[in-house]
Design brief:
Helix content is 50%, strand content 17%. It is built from ten helices and ten strands. Strands 2-1-3-4-5-8-9-10 form an eight-stranded mixed sheet, sandwiched between helices. A two-stranded antiparallel ribbon has the order 6-7. Helix 1 crosses helix 10 and helix 2 crosses helix 8.
Length: 250
């Protein structure tokens, strides 16, 4: 199983993520045996990334200082030739967010974009979609074609998460069904998935197939966590428990 492979690999994932989800993301990585680093001070990024196996760029609580750190971290990771995952949280919410994301994509070679439907619509420059803050929003979008377009435009993998996940390298398309809506009721589940995707990209084998296994496993975790928890707070903890359990199963 993919979580077991992450535990065996024990990658160090440098997460430049947002302060809303940093604790949950770190605990999620630890639950599967990975090592999280959350440093975002530009003066120490070069030294920190020298130790890392993958880098996550998450714009959830973006500001001018963090913007500079994200780009520097991405470029440093490119020089080291380690995977870079971009999570363009709420990219359609403001003009500033959109400018930051497109600047990152212009300057940094990203290996994977992990996004929801609304974020994909912005990246594909589909103006029919109505964003709603950092949530997915509403609209009509050909998800498969939009994901392929973005993947080809930026030479990267794209993973679009929702009721049915889509993974593409611009040519191949893989759909992953399942999961539970309760994953949308606690903050950080999508951001944690971005960090787990970064860990997954450090594994040997076909990255598309590895990501397919990750998304399928995460949907199983959502169902298992829901079955074992009545209340929202317990559900969030149970997600961590199920991650840990999957990573240790024989």
């Amino acid at each position: 199983m993919i979580m077991q492979r992450i535990r065996k690999r024990q990658p160090l994932v440098h997460c430049l993520t947002n302060y809303v989800v940093a604790n949950f993301t770190a605990n999620g990585l630890l639950a599967v045996g990975a090592s999280p680093v959350m440093a975002d001070e530009i003066a120490e990024l070069k030294d920190m990334i020298a130790l890392a196996d993958a880098v996550l760029l998450n714009i959830g609580t973006i500001n001018t200082r963090i913007q500079e750190s994200l780009i520097f971290a991405g470029l440093t990771a490119n020089q080291k030739k380690i995977p870079v995952v971009l999570d363009p949280v709420g990219v359609g919410a403001t003009t500033y967010r959109k400018e930051v994301v497109f600047k990152i994509l212009q300057q940094v070679k990203v290996d994977l974009i992990r996004c929801n439907l609304g974020e994909l619509a912005v990246l594909a420059q589909d103006n029919t979609w109505q964003s709603r803050g950092v949530d997915s929003g509403i609209g009509k979008l050909n998800v498969v074609e939009a994901a392929k377009l973005v993947a080809l435009d930026y030479g990267c993998l794209v993973a679009v998460t929702g009721a049915e996940d889509v993974i593409t390298d611009g040519t191949r398309i893989i759909m992953v069904k399942g999961g539970h809506t309760r994953m949308t009721e606690v903050t950080g589940t999508g951001c944690l998935l971005g960090a787990l995707a970064a860990a997954t990209l450090t594994l040997l084998g076909d990255p598309v197939e590895n990501l397919q296994q990750l998304l399928a496993a995460y949907k199983e975790i959502a169902i298992s966590a829901s079955e074992r928890s009545e209340y929202t707070g317990i559900f969030q903890i149970e997600v961590l428990n199920q991650l840990n359990l999957q990573s240790k199963e024989n």
